[in-house]
Amino acid sequence: MNYQIRTEGQYTVIALRGDVDLHHSPKAREQILKYLGDQCHVMVDLADVAYIDSSGIASLIEGFQLAKQHKLQFGLVGVSEPAMQVLKLARLDRVLPIHQTISGMALVSIR
Amino acid sequence: MTTALAQTEIRFTSRSAQLHRVRGEIRSACEQYRCSRECIDHIVIAVNEACTNVIEHAYGKECDAEIVLKIFKDGTALVFHLIDHARPSDRDCVRPQAIDLSRPGGLGVLLINEVMDKVRFLECAHADGNVLEMRKTIE
Prior knowledge:
The structure holds 2 protein chains of 2 kinds.
Chain A (H helix, E strand, L loop, with lengths): L1 E7 L2 E10 L4 H13 L3 E12 L1 H16 L4 E4 L3 H9 L8 E2 L12
Parallel strand pairs in A: 2-3, 3-4, 4-5
Antiparallel strand pairs in A: 1-2
Helix pairs in contact in A: 1-2
Chain B lengths: L3 E10 L5 H13 L5 H22 L7 E9 L2 E8 L22 H9 L2 E5 L7 E8 L2
Helix pairs in contact in B: 1-2, 2-3
């Protein structure tokens, strides 16, 4: 797995690429928590994720929870088919905020 | 009476870096049984989670201890035996639990149970170790 960081509007986008499994998910978790810790609104781009396991999903859930605590925005964008399969099996596709694209998204208040 | 047919055996060590190769070999084995692509994808997800649990929880560390995955057909089911030589696992640990988002542990077990029709530990012939059986009907 590798990752790239970019900024789109007010979002820091963490684009993950490859396999986000037990071997690689600590790197993904580190980046997600780092930018949320810096008070950034974070979108995780999963378009190029070939595989994600429960440890990767747990990192996304942790980011989602931390963002809520800090009243920041957190979501997933461009979710690849393999990643969506896992999210659906875990029934998290209706829990985690999922967006097709970032463009046009407006920041909304976090309740 | 059911008869086990040709068997695939995948050997690997308790290292997460091996999981990518193991997933590829699981996929290749399942393709021999003409499962649908979605069925194979789901099986790979479930069996990968079981392998991950052995590395992370049974052995509890990255090490060179051996793990063996046997795959065979039994009637209309694909059967997976995941064998380790770690200390015996809690036999209830493969029962699915409701996911608590504040503590996302147990997600792997949930995925295994969502995909597989039956998940259980078999009696192990060795003093130490576990044999996790997962069965998936494919026909």
